Amino acid sequence: MFKKREKSSFKEKPKFFRKRVCRFCIDKIDEVDYKDVLRLQRCVTERGKITPRRISGNCAPHQRKLSHAIKRARYIGLLPYTAE
Asked: Which of 52, 54, 76, 84: CA 20 to 30 A from 65?
């Protein structure tokens, strides 16, 4: 009734994931400053989007502060909204 699924010819790579660590926790930064453009640019893609937590590795409180700081920096004009 059901056909057995054929195995593919290529081998699957073993999946090893390294747990990402929050950069702000490592540097012991409590408040994320909107004027620190170099630090904020690391957490923004080249298209201008804020990278999600699962990719950047930030903890939840720092990710919330980071997104708020990025939005402030955009409003003031320190960071672009979109890619140029």
From this structure: 84
